[in-house]
Specification:
Elements: H1 6-36, E1 40-45, H2 55-70, H3 73-79, E2 80-84, E3 90-95, H4 97-104, E4 111-114, E5 117-120, E6 150-155, H5 189-192, E7 197-202, H6 205-211, H7 234-243, E8 247-252, E9 255-260, E10 268-273, E11 275-276, E12 282-284, H8 285-298, E13 302-305, E14 307-309, H9 322-332, E15 336-340, E16 359-364, E17 368-369, E18 371-376, E19 381-385, E20 396-399, E21 427-431, H10 441-448, E22 455-459, E23 475-478, H11 480-492, E24 498-501, E25 507-508, E26 515-516, E27 536-539, E28 543-546, E29 558-561, H12 564-581, H13 587-596, E30 609-610, E31 616-617, H14 620-623, H15 630-633, E32 638-639, H16 644-653, H17 658-661, E33 686-691, E34 694-703, E35 709-716, E36 721-726, E37 729-732, E38 738-747, E39 755-763, E40 768-777
Parallel strand pairs: 6-10, 6-13, 7-10, 13-15, 15-16, 16-27, 20-21, 21-22, 22-23, 26-30, 33-40
Antiparallel strand pairs: 1-3, 1-4, 2-3, 5-12, 5-14, 8-9, 11-12, 17-25, 18-19, 18-24, 20-24, 28-29, 30-31, 32-34, 34-38, 35-37, 35-39, 36-38, 39-40
Bound molecules: 2-acetamido-2-deoxy-beta-D-glucopyranose (7 copies).
The site of one 2-acetamido-2-deoxy-beta-D-glucopyranose has 3 residues, from loops.
Length: 785
Amino acid sequence: MNFFPQIRSKARLLLVFLSLFSFVNKHLLSSIAADVKSNQVYIVHMGKRQHDEDIQLLKKTHHQVLATVLGSKEASADAMIYSYKHGFSGFAARLTATQAKTISELSGVVHVIPNQLYKVQTTRSWDYLRLSSHYPTEFVQKSKLGDGVIIGLIDTGIWPESDVFSDEGLGPIPSRWKGVCESGEQFSGEKHCNKKLIGARYFAKALEAEYGQTLPFNTTENPEYLSARDAIGHGTHTSTTAAGSLTTNKSYNGLGVGTVRGGAPQARLAMYKVCWNLDGGVCSGADILKAFDEAIHDGVDVISVSIAADMPPNPEFDAKNGIAVGAFHAVEKGIVVVCSAANTGPSAQTVQNASPWILTVAASTVDRSFPTLIALGNNWTTMGQAMFTGKDTGFVSLVYPEVSDLDYPRDCKGLAANSSAWAVGKVVLCFTSEFSHGPSIDDVAWSLRKTGILALIVAENPSRSLHSCPDNLPCVQVSYEIGMKILAYFRSTSSDAQVRISPTKTHDGRPVSTTLAYFSSRGPNSFSPAVLKPDIAAPGVNILAAVSPSELELKNAFAFMSGTSMATPHVSGIVALLKSLHWDWSPAAIKSAIVTTAWTTDPSGEPIFAEGEPMKLADAFDYGGGIVNFNRAADPGLVYDMGSEDYVKYLCAMGYNNSAISLLREHSTSCPSKTPSVLDINLPSITIPNLRNVTTITRTVKNVGAVDAQYKVVVDPPFGIQVSVQPDILKFNSTTNTISFSVSVFSTHKVTTGYYFGSLTWTDGVHEVRSPMSVRTVVTLSHDG
Ligand SMILES: *[C@@H]1O[C@H](CO)[C@@H](O)[C@H](O)[C@H]1NC(C)=O
Ligand SMILES: *[C@@H]1O[C@H](CO)[C@@H](O)[C@H](O)[C@H]1NC(C)=O
Ligand SMILES: *[C@@H]1O[C@H](CO)[C@@H](O)[C@H](O)[C@H]1NC(C)=O
Ligand SMILES: *[C@@H]1O[C@H](CO)[C@@H](O)[C@H](O)[C@H]1NC(C)=O
Ligand SMILES: *[C@@H]1O[C@H](CO)[C@@H](O)[C@H](O)[C@H]1NC(C)=O
Ligand SMILES: *[C@@H]1O[C@H](CO)[C@@H](O)[C@H](O)[C@H]1NC(C)=O
Ligand SMILES: *[C@@H]1O[C@H](CO)[C@@H](O)[C@H](O)[C@H]1NC(C)=O
């Protein structure tokens, strides 16, 4: 028998980690190279815009500042990329490091930070088109379906002809809308916008400046449109999920017949394209900041951002990067900002977009499977997972690559078209792992599709999301355990081993339990450990939605995609519904409603597991409050509210000085003389990263339910932690609408521990307002002990 030797596996594991580091290093090197490069894009912050400031004047000021350093008006015009005017005052420009430093010393300039690159957050390839549709999650809709709410997406653009963006039955565009529908390559402002897609713009100047004149995108392989048209499919997919119109009877060759629709099918969409077709979608921080600036001005209610910084995340930038800064200004204006947690799980501390004003979304699976029958010649049948709508193979030969390419012995990733003669007309069994090098299984299958190989049976970690393989070469996923059984059969058959693969059926509901996706980035929050991240989870695995078709002439294409990118617009759609129910709620109130009412078991009552090695019960660092539950979020009972003053308090607590804070707020902002504790920020969760002995924190709740209400506290303390709440009964009436309480947390541990999880819930018998609690005890030795 030939098992992978354990020691070998370890060596391979090490190699992979090393190669991950070398990947990281390459990126570090390229960013260092960018620094050395004479011109880089910098973002110059000049503080909060004053209400009475004239926009044209502001722009002129920006040019004057730049001209002071560059020496002339012409040089300034040449270097200027964007003027930011709505959220705050500032600009992006191409500068040398010396010029950037000089500008940072000018009066009126608050901060100069180098631009950063971002990536879209999908793990699956979106080039697998020609699919039809079915919507995987169900949450009951309130009647208005988000009517009147405007969702802005900062993404890769949109395919406007798709049926899911039809405006049939929609009322007029909200009169407060101030956005535009910008024409560009293959995109007509007049023709392509309607009452559903009410705005479309694109931002590429900073990325162009970053790459110089020769754009590395827009090649034959990576076509691109210099307009809001989506060449990648990612933005079309996220837009569909957030607010696609109802389109019935869509299916992918009969798989999963149903209705494709967004979370808020009556909400309006505005696309701000910032990511371009290079490396699956790359975006520049300065472009993103401009998109926020315009979206704030245009009048969107929700901003959905399925983008995160390229790895490694730079902690120095988290509160200052394009997304965090843009989001801060949007939230100050009452706009809810929903961002993806990133796809770098399941390792701890990988969550991004971790500022407390952002609603950060993790990805879960749905209770749906694609069972695909595998029958062996010995009459044994088993089930794999695939998306196979082709013909039943009938009984054919089964083969296994006993000796494959030397680099990837027996790994599916080592299968190559130019050495596949042995497998023609047969089904190939192979093993793979997320730690092995090589192309993705999808890429391998697509490269083999013309060889005459009939199917791959891919044995791997069962938690991986479905592959997108061609219909004439399906990839049927099985667990290692089933893979070993099939291998045992293969080796026991001296003659021809036989196998038969039947087309996939769709199976919704149990018996597939909900899990937190393997790739979904995890807490704790490495930027600010006392702020729980991610906030919430939503479906993000094998989500079917509209994408860009392969030809300009085509209208409709659908694809399955997975990623925190796909989870994010589910939450954005739900936020739109909540907005239409509660126009007066602040972004923090909406976030609180979502976090405190989430499902902590799956909708059928089964526990939620988190994928990883090993699989474990999901906790707050996997899914924040849990899995988003619209019906309960619509009527949460109590909310933990916050305003921009609270966020400033947070920045003070984080040790940002006044100058750093004025990056986000006006110059006059100053921290209180007694530094606030980050533990007291009024979050809907309690996270104590270093409990020494005992600590007391405060929270304030606001009653948003019936005026007269009485709540009592129920604590499920983390292991070894004692929790007492004062007062433990809250009585609301017509004059008392907000009440503060304190929580004393005491550790009985004698040693430093890892995190233990629990919860603090206020209940009036109807509502349950649950705050996840995460506590780590830290015992430090004193110098004299
Ligand atoms: C992409 O290439 C086409 C054809 O060469 C050109 O017309 C188009 O303007 C290019 N788009 C961008 C974004 O550069
Ligand atoms: C759904 O579509 C299929 C194939 O396009 C068609 O045969 C069927 O009649 C349609 N069903 C409904 C209810 O429209
Ligand atoms: C498989 O089952 C069929 C019918 O049930 C039977 O005729 C055949 O002998 C079985 N084959 C083996 C290898 O057990
Ligand atoms: C097969 O193709 C791969 C890349 O496509 C190449 O690296 C390899 O050398 C080729 N092998 C043979 C035997 O031609
Ligand atoms: C504020 O902090 C920044 C970076 O931490 C530092 O460069 C700057 O000098 C500080 N400013 C003041 C006024 O302390
Ligand atoms: C921990 O707190 C308790 C209660 O406040 C106190 O009695 C005890 O001395 C403290 N222990 C240490 C080691 O500080
Ligand atoms: C509401 O409750 C507060 C505190 O318990 C009390 O002082 C106040 O009189 C009550 N108001 C009314 C209208 O009952």
